[in-house]
Amino acid sequence: MNKVPPLDIYRFEIVLELLGDLETPKYMGSLLRGAFAWSFRRTVCVTKQPVCDGCLLKGNCSYFRIFETELAADHIPYLKGVRKVPHPFVLTPPVDGKTHYKTGDRLRIELKLFGSSVQLLPYYVYVFQNIGENGIGKNNTRFKVAGFSSISDDGSKDEVLSSDGKNVKTALLPQRIPQPDEPDIRNTGSVTLDFITPVRLQGDGKVLLDGKKISPAVLLNGITRRYLALSGLYGGDGFSEIKPGFKFDLIRITENDLKIYDWGRYSNRQKTFLDMSGLTGSITLAGEIKEAIPWLLAGSFVNMGKNTAYGLGQYTIKFN
């Protein structure tokens, strides 16, 4: 069985206490990701150029490192044709279905950081404080960062932000990814993936919005491609030569209730509306899945598919 390459994964909970009423889109991830990127760039950019292309400082810029890093990766099979590398973070919004929050409500955001990107944790804290001061949403609703905690394997939380909001604890332990030889996993006959947020998987270069077109190959290639890229870029061992040997013809889908989740966002950069629709629901894999289990476990920690920085593609696993 191929081992999944190492990648330290850190989870945090950010608690935002609203200082006014807030209206959000159907999926709040676009609002959070947009405000985060805008505020980060505004905070660290010293040249104030409208774009990063051609900037003399981009090689040493924390914004460019997180949002715009480019990669000549044609020599890496699972990154062939990729120019912009995967972001080293995932911001997952509340998934309570609400679009209106009142003054005093607390929003709980999950942040995941991958590998070496945890070194920039103080930037993430400061940027969220900055967003709170300037406001978010169409009414520029202000908030205060009421908590910024690391999450351990058992779900317990440890505050990383000092009470005065000026110091950040950086001695942190990464998450432990469960191993396939653990008792409750070892003898599983099938695996169910339950998507908490919409997933955008590609087939033939297009996002698949018909759940019946999702095959074992589409799922597993979507996971391995992303995880191998993240571990190579932000892990300590560089790019791996591992080629997962999945027997796609011996893996079957026994249940599939994936359905379309229709949403979109307006891109200020591109000045157009972008369709961000994906699939939600669950799907069950059975058959020769032993080789796939380590990758399915790892994928549940880094999300799956496109636009994961918005929190898309988050899923839980049930072993049957």
Question: Would you mind describing this structure in some detail?
Answer:
- This protein has 320 residues and is α+β, with helices and mostly antiparallel strands.
- It has helices at 29-44, 62-68, 121-134, 183-186, 216-234, 293-302; strands at 9-18, 22-23, 89-92, 100-101, 106-114, 143-151, 157-159, 190-199, 202-203, 206-207, 251-256, 259-261, 264-267, 272-275, 278-287, 315-319.
- The protein folds into two domains: 9-159, Alpha-Beta Plaits (2-Layer Sandwich); 183-319, 2-Layer Sandwich (Alpha-Beta Plaits).
- It contains six helices and 16 strands.
- The strands form five sheets. It has a five-stranded antiparallel sheet with strand order 3-5-1-6-7.
- Helix 1 crosses helix 3 (121-134) and helix 5 (216-234) crosses helix 6.
- The longest helix has 19 residues, at 216-234.
- The chain starts with 8 loop residues before the first strand and ends with a strand.
Shape: globular
Gross CATH architecture of the largest domain: 2-Layer Sandwich
The CATH topology annotation of the largest domain reads as Alpha-Beta Plaits
Sheet of most strands: 5 strands, antiparallel
CATH class category of the largest domain: Alpha Beta
- Residue fraction in strands: 25-35%
Radius of gyration: 20 Å
Overall tally of domains: 2
Parts with pLDDT < 50 across at least 5 consecutive residues: none
> Mean pLDDT, as a whole number?
89
What are the key terms here?
single chain; 320 residues; alpha+beta; Alpha-Beta Plaits; five-stranded antiparallel sheet; globular
Write the layout of secondary structure elements.
Blueprint: E1 9-18, E2 22-23, H1 29-44, H2 62-68, E3 89-92, E4 100-101, E5 106-114, H3 121-134, E6 143-151, E7 157-159, H4 183-186, E8 190-199, E9 202-203, E10 206-207, H5 216-234, E11 251-256, E12 259-261, E13 264-267, E14 272-275, E15 278-287, H6 293-302, E16 315-319
Antiparallel strand pairs: 1-5, 1-6, 2-4, 3-5, 6-7, 8-15, 8-16, 9-10, 11-15, 12-15, 13-14
